[in-house]
Design a protein that fits this description.
By secondary structure, the protein is an alpha+beta fold. The protein has four helices and 14 strands. A five-stranded antiparallel β-sheet has the order 7-6-8-13-14. Strands 1-3-4 form a three-stranded antiparallel β-sheet. Strands 2-11-10 form a three-stranded antiparallel β-sheet, with no helix packed on it. The longest helix has 24 residues, at 7-30. It is globular, with a radius of gyration of 17 Å. It starts with 6 loop residues before the first helix and ends with a strand. The model has no long low-confidence stretch (mean pLDDT 98). GO terms for molecular function: initiator methionyl aminopeptidase activity.
Length: 255
């Protein structure tokens, strides 16, 4: 079931989104050569605590997971696409890092992700990250009343495929509201004009996940959470929580 939000509820979701944006800003500022993903998670916990917010990630256990998620952010490095458990292994110069964060504030959720390079950036990584951001912007641009879910999917997929990148198979965005994952699902590739019609009050987490090698396949780490590219190529993830309004898309997780 798709839950339509009122303007007041969307404003409340914006406050949760601000906390998410603060977490991602803090993580990006803290990330450096020698810093561990676990330290980034500790920094995120401090932001949540100061804001009086909770984490929708911590102890989350969907059907596919054998154990609850043990952190408040996902930190996926290099060939890890998404769902990386923050480790104690220090980041190295040139690592491509994707951080996915969420917050629950006053009963409403926000969800967003960014990717960046630690230290010196390889040109191919810079292009990959920029394309993920471009795909996200295209998806947001298609999130307007009168369009359909397929229009968002097509906008994202076109940017990714035209750049020669793969799209993580079987994964995409989702509705969001009182809980982190709600209906509808938002694929990262699809046909325009198909799927559910977009209505004012719908709130979606739009999140392209790109694979540099051009394939869509992935494998699971032994931790049961981390998804890695099968070809060892690097990956990038970008995400915003977006409200559909009569005046156009409203990004709720912008800083």
């Amino acid at each position: 079931m798709v839950h339509i939000k009122t303007d007041t509820q969307i404003d409340a979701m914006r406050e949760a989104g601000r906390v998410v944006a603060q977490i991602l800003t803090r993580a990006r500022e803290a990330a450096a050569v020698g810093v561990t993903p676990r330290q980034l998670d500790e920094a995120a916990r401090e932001v949540l605590s100061k804001a009086g917010a909770a984490s929708p990630f911590l102890n989350y256990k969907p059907h596919f997971a054998s154990t609850p998620f043990p952190a408040v952010i996902c930190v996926s490095v290099n060939d890890a696409v998404v769902h990386g458990i923050p480790s104690a292994e220090p980041l190295r110069d040139g690592d491509l890092v994707s951080v996915d964060a969420g917050a629950l504030l006053d009963g409403w959720a926000g969800d967003s992700a960014i990717s960046f390079t630690v230290g010196g950036a390889r040109p191919e990584d810079t292009r990959l990250i920029a394309t993920a951001d471009e795909a996200l912007a295209a998806g947001i641009g298609a999130a307007v009343v009168g369009n359909r879910i397929g229009d968002i999917a097509h906008a994202i997929g076109t940017v990714c495929r035209d750049a020669g990148y793969g799209i993580l198979e079987g994964y995409g965005g989702h509705g969001i509201g009182r809980s982190m994952h709600e209906d509808p699902s938002v694929p990262n590739e699809g046909r325009p004009g198909r799927g559910m019609a977009l209505r004012p009050g719908m709130v979606l987490a739009i999140e392209p996940m790109l694979i540099a090698g051009g394939g869509d396949e992935f494998r699971h780490d032994e931790d049961g959470w981390t998804l890695r590219t099968t070809d060892g190529s690097r990956a990038s993830h970008a995400e915003h929580t977006v409200a559909i309004t009569k005046d156009g898309p409203r990004v709720l997780t912008a800083l």
